[in-house]
Amino acid sequence: MSRSPIQTLHPEPQAQLQITGVPIQGYLGTVQLPGIDWGYFLERRQGTLEKCTDLPAYLLLPEVERMLKHTHDQVPHFLINTLMHTGARISEALKLTEGDFRLDARYPEVSIPTLKTRRGRPSKKSTPNRAKRRLVPLMDGAYIDEALRFFATQRRAKSALLFPIDRSTAYRWIKAAAFRLEARGQALSIPVGPHTLRHSFAVNAILNWVPTAVLQEWLGHENRDSTEIYTQVFQTETYHFMARVGYHSGLVDESK
Predict the structure, then answer these.
(1) Cα(179)–Cα(183) distance, integer angstroms
(2) pLDDT tens digits, residue range 225-235?
(3) Are 94 and 63 in contact (CB under 8 A)?
(4) 63 φ, ψ to 5°?
(5) Domains, the chain, ranges and CATH?
(6) Does the reported pTM lie above 0.70?
């Protein structure tokens, strides 16, 4: 299959990961991820949120994909996709520059400035240059292609902000994406905003069995408890765990 001029800027796959499940094509080769019954998790989400009051409202991956499908403007689309692929806080996403992305590396990644203090709000002293940074891997080839197209068409300096907007504008863009779904009869059952996508990134990682210690680093949490909250998505969903438990070793011949 031919590749666009933008796509050819990226090297060919360098490695192949294999985990039993559904194949996902990425820049590092074919990554096998466990299958997820999205309809099941969607059906049980309301009960999960009612039982686990500490668990923040989240979207499931197919819902975010529908938001992206009906967001046609390039900048809002890339912002929504970046929030979902990195788990960045909106204050952090709005500080990203092209120079923060390493897309030509063997293992693509983005360097995100952690701009949150212990009190929970960005510090005035936490500028991107002073802030502690965290690296989030970028494994989705479609997202990397979008980033390359974005950089090529926007033609901003590598040190210039990718999203020179304020928080309220970002919030309006995301709400507009939700309204477009509602107009199509596909209304989301939870309110959405920039932080909803951060929660959605975290839940998506948990559903794909990312260890909480790794997720903690990706999210920039100081306290592990802040990350453990997302594991509550399984509180009303123990069927999948039991399905993995074996009761027949296959080593005993019962016919004898």
Answers:
(1) 6
(2) 999 999 999 88
(3) no
(4) -70, -40
(5) 35-238 (1.10.443.10)
(6) yes
